Amino acid sequence: MLPRLRLPTQTSHGVVTYPAGATFGPRQMRDYEFVWIVEGDCEYRHGQQTVPAPPGSIVLCRPGETDFFRWDVRRRTQHAYFHFDITRVPRNWPKPADWPLVRNTSEGDILRPVFSHILRHVGGDPELLHLSISHLLACFVLGQIDTGAIPRDTLPEPVELAWQFIQRQLDRDAAEPITLDDLAGAAFVTRGHLCRIFADAIGHSPMETVRLARLDRALDLLARSNFTIGQIAELCGFASNFHFSRRFKDAFGKSPRAMRAQIHEGATPPAPRLLIRLTR
User: Fold this and answer.
1) What is the rounded CA–CA span in Å between residue 163 and residue 155?
2) CATH of 4-142, one of 2.60.120.280, 3.40.50.150, 2.40.50.140, 3.40.630.40
3) Which of 77, 126, 169, 263 is geometrically suited to a Cys-Cys bond with 40, CB 3.0 to 4.6 A?
4) 229 and 264 in contact (C-beta within 8 Å)?
5) 20 neighbors 75 (Cβ within 8 angstroms)
6) What is the mean pLDDT of the chain?
7) pLDDT band per the 50, 70, 90 thresholds, residue 172
């Protein structure tokens, strides 16, 4: 038997990239959250317990305690996450207090492919989403995580190449400008052809994709870091707080300050504007 879950109307989920030395919390958890440490080391504190979470590990955050993340102090950290709640646990399962906080993965595990599947299909069939999260939770709790690797689909090659270039540049120095010529060169196509295939593949122009990628990173840091709004504007490559606030409000309908306050009061963050799967 699988657990019975309750999902938010708009499931809070995403992928967040932190610069070295970032922290997140302390926060009082209201529901459950799975966190996949994609890159970088992490230290996770839940109540009185502190556990390491190396790259590839999956963390299960749970309600009723205050938790805190300390991200890698030497290099950037990237993690994916989504929230859910549990209304009934199968009788033959261990008690929730005995569930592990972290599962370390290895090649061929089931946790990361299912996690990726969930992130790609949030907003789709709700029954499928419930079953997928239930399956992930069951494998995590019961320790049955071994399987074969699952291949992934790809974007058109020029879009993949341009998107990888955008991510590398933002990771290296988000304040550095990215031009259409840069993207066309990275994709080995003309500027006009790149604009056409971007519009067909993801519904945005290349330069709009760059802007939205910066804003999506800013949204993640607003919701899930202790950086000030000014620091977030600088980290995400915006020329000024005014420019950042205006662009952010255009994209998400609220100022960065209002959005952070709303999230801290318990509201679900909006979905990222740029719904491209990670292609690292």
Assistant:
1) 9
2) 2.60.120.280
3) 77
4) no
5) yes
6) 89
7) confident
